[in-house]
Amino acid sequence: MWKERWLYVFLVPGIIYFIVYKYLPMWGILMAFMDYKPYLGFWDSPWVGLKHFERFFSEPEFWTLLRNTLWIATLDLIVFFPFTIVIALLLNEVRKEMFKRTIQTFVYVPHFLSWVVVVGISYILFTTEGGVINEILAKLGFDKINFLMNEDLFRPMLILQMVWKDAGWGTIIFLAALAGVNPGLYEAAKMDGANRWRLLWHITLPSIRSVIVILLILRLGNFMDLGFEQIFLMTNAMNREVAEVFDTYVYRVGLQQGQFSYSAAVGLFKSIVGLILVLGSNYLAKKAGEEGIY
């Protein structure tokens, strides 16, 4: 450690970040087991045990929240995650470097837009009051569709936004893994008569399989954490029945209604589910012969 001391110095900012923003806030978990009162402080608030969890699981809203969260999280897992792999594979097949760089830039740029901008663009495109898509439908003789307030269209629009905004950015790790594939494997396979599809199936995908498994396990850890901004901005009175998820519920009861302990219990429930999913998926990956995350 002394020999490489200057390398360890570079770790200090990251270590401080994780201590301050990740580990110290974990003491706040205790709030889920007490009836927190701001005027009493953290240590003097009365201890209530599992009271908030019992209330949460008995709430009629619990099953609605669980259903909506699972629906969106599952769509994210089976649509968004594979889409990032597909884009990486397609970009990897592009041989002209300038064209490849240009396409990469275009698919990366949306990641740097805030969700406010993305939802604003969606509003401009899909609103019935002068929206581009509805105006085109009207010109073609079709009835206008209320995309933004239609419960059936809420989830597809949500996934479409995720794909447009972050799918390109999600390809970075996969492209890095693809860059490490031995070119000699492709040359040997071509000499044996393998076409592009067989190269992809027998060399490319097996070479990045471990990376796919690790990223899938990490993504399962955030299975219940859908993010707040996008869903909050897309939610309105007409689609709330399918749009309300744990993240927006925590905001509503925790910040708007001041039920800090109750919302902390909801957040802890999400974290426990994420932990179980990570441990379970890592165990299955190990059983299947993959490396896993530990």
Task: List its salient traits.
single chain, MetI-like, 16 helices, transmembrane helix, transmembrane, MetI-like_sf, 69% helix, mainly alpha, membrane, 0% strand, 294 residues, MetI-like fold
- Give a count of the beta strands, DSSP E runs of length 2 or more: 0
CATH superfamily of the domain at 64-115 and 143-287, by name, is MetI-like
Total helices: the number is 16
Q: What is the name of the CATH architecture of the domain at 64-115 and 143-287?
A: Orthogonal Bundle
Rg (C-alpha, Å):
24 Å
Q: Describe the biggest sheet?
A: none
**DSSP strand (E) fraction?**
under 5%
Content-based structural category: mainly alpha
CATH topology of the domain at 64-115 and 143-287: MetI-like fold
Helix content: 55-70%
CATH class designation of the domain at 64-115 and 143-287 = Mainly Alpha
- Report the span from N to C terminus: 23 Å
Order of helices and strands: HHHHHHHHHHHHHHHH
Q: Give the mean pLDDT.
A: 89
- Give unreliable regions as ranges: none
- Structural shape: globular
Describe the model.
This protein is mainly alpha-helical. The protein has a domain at 64-115 and 143-287: MetI-like fold. Helix content is 69%, strand content 0%. It contains 16 helices and no strands. Belongs to the binding-protein-dependent transport system permease family. Residues 66-281 form the ABC transmembrane type-1 domain. Its main location: membrane.
Write the topology of this structure.
Blueprint (H helix, E strand, L loop, with lengths): L4 H19 L17 H4 L6 H8 L2 H33 L3 H12 L6 H12 L5 H8 L11 H16 L5 H8 L3 H9 L4 H12 L1 H13 L7 H6 L5 H4 L2 H11 L3 H28 L7
